[in-house]
Amino acid sequence: SDLIHQAAQAIRSANKIAILTGAGVSKESGVPTFRDALDGLWAKYNPEELATPMAFHKNPKLVWDWYQFRRELVSQAKPNPGHVALAEIEKRYPRTVVITQNVDDLHEQAGSKNIIHLHGNIAESKCLANCKGTPTIIDIEAFEWDREQGPPACPHCGEAVRPNVVWFHEMLPEADLERAYAVSLACDLMIVVGTSGLVNPAGTLPKIAREYPDLPAKIVEVNPDYSMVTPIADIKLEAPSGEILPEVIEVLDTLDK
Ligand code: OAD
Fold first, then answer.
1. Integer Cα distance of 123 and 28 in angstroms
2. 34, 204, 228: which to mutate for ligand 1, most atoms within 8 A of CB?
3. pTM above 0.90?
4. Among this protein's residues, is 119 annotated catalytic?
5. Ligand 1 pocket: which residues have CB below 6 Å?
6. Strand order of the sheet with strand 137-138?
7. How many C-beta atoms surround the C-beta of residue 240 within 10 A?
8. Per-residue pLDDT reduced to its tens digit, 73-114
9. Burial of residue 127 (number of CB atoms within 10 Å: 0-12, 13-18, 19+)
């Protein structure tokens, strides 16, 4: 509980807060993480066979159907107390920005407003060729196609339609990445929740927050396990985010009395 107090004090005295989240923050909402050995998404599938442009080119139906399966999972998920607590921090400290690697919309559903999606949004689809600009979002509910065949064809150019998410070997959306770097440099506190820190460039953001600006940011990590962020975390809350973040809010309530 001393660490929870320290985390609450760090939030209270921060000027600009960045919150970096990964799949762990959505786990208690029933959305699988990527690398959890037991029930992670990758436990059943090899990511290189699914989340890459080559995989989609080789077998569009396999990749499309896998994302339809994940979309179903995400659409049934609800924000958990961890998402709600993070939205509460933004309500109390409006200069807070959420940088998420997650492609679900649970931060939005929980009430967070300032959100940067580094890896896209699974609920959206786009033309493979981005024929009308980057990204060319396609509303797949607006037309019928033979779903047994896999993805629909872009109504503008006929190319395949794909999920609007970042695959391995792909560039991140440039404007979002630029903004994430700027937010990481400018913050004096970064709360890192539920990420292994294994995937870059997202994984470099805590190091950037801590090392580059003249005012190094304090790092608070929320993760029941060890991660790539743990070695540079000033405060480590080793517990599920859905359990411990509400406790941080409770302490903030007593401090703000
Ligand atoms: P990972 O599955 O790599 O890591 C999830 C982290 O969440 C692990 O460190 C777990 O210990 C932690 N965790 C599990 N349950 C938790 C809980 N209840 N509360 C807090 N933390 C918990 O997922 P990411 O780090 O998000 O990239 O993976 C990063 C990227 O790799 C993903 O965005 C995806 C994947 O390839 C793309 O889709 C481009």
1. 20
2. 34
3. yes
4. yes
5. 22-25, 27-28, 33-36, 40, 101, 119, 166, 193-196, 198-199, 222-225, 227, 240-242
6. 137-138, 120-127, 161-165
7. 19
8. 899 999 999 999 999 999 999 999 999 999 999 999 999 999
9. buried
